[in-house]
Amino acid sequence: MEKTFLMLKPDAVQRKMIGRLVQRFEDKGFELLGAKLTRMTMKQAEIHYAEHAGKPFYGELIDFITSGPVFAMVWQGEQAIAMSRTMMGKTNPLEAAPGTIRGDYATDKGLNVIHGSDSPESAEREIANMFEPGELLPSGPPIASRSNGLHIDASGN
Ligand code: GTP
Ligand code: MG
Which Gene3D superfamilies match (predicted)? Predict the structure, then answer.
């Protein structure tokens, strides 16, 4: 079971799109392991976008991602990384197919609604950058099939 880090960017939160975007991933069959509304610190933004440091749009990217709250999420599912990127659509909204998130909701390359990890290594790094381990359900078998659902025992631990 693969884990991915998805993040609704400040434009999506400001446009009140959290519910309908979360719905798409639930409908697809992924399982949510954790989520929070938070504002990225400058340090978190620099770690998150380290691969883009030095590019012409880097300053704009950091300014935008720290400009308001984001909705950070960890999801699990079969091939969750590749499948969620297919659902997101191409980075450039001009190339993003209708039916994808960016194809349906974005017109700007910077304000493109959602981030999704591009590899298992990125997912690990991006999750650790935004969540404490205790904020996430353990990944593993589908939650519905677990005997005690959320892995919380009768004593509350
Ligand atoms: P993320 O899931 O956000 O990482 O998008 P991606 O993997 O599809 O694209 P990539 O990692 O190459 O770029 C990261 C983000 O930088 C993109 O989502 C855009 O928001 C932004 N970005 C990339 N290229 C440009 C550009 O040419 N101009 C601007 N303004 N932003 C860009
Ligand atoms: Mg990327």
Answer: Nucleoside diphosphate kinase-like domain
Q: Where are the domains of the chain?
A: 2-135
Decide: 75 and 29 in contact? Cβ < 8 Å: no
pLDDT at 157: 44
Ligand nearest to C-alpha 112: 1
Which atom of ligand 1 is nearest the CA belonging to 116? 2
pLDDT digits 0-9 by tens, 7-30: 999 999 999 999 999 999 999 999
Q: 2-135 has which fold?
A: Alpha-Beta Plaits (3.30.70)
- Indicate whether residue 85 lines ligand 1 (CB < 6 A): no
Q: Report, as residue numbers or ranges, the catalytic residues.
A: 115
ipTM of the complex: 0.91
State in Å: Cα 91 to ligand 1 middle. 6
The answer, yes or no, to whether residue 145 has pLDDT greater than 70, is: no
CA of 155 to the centre of ligand 2 (A): 41
The pLDDT value recorded for residue 151 is: 52
CA distance 133 to 137: 8
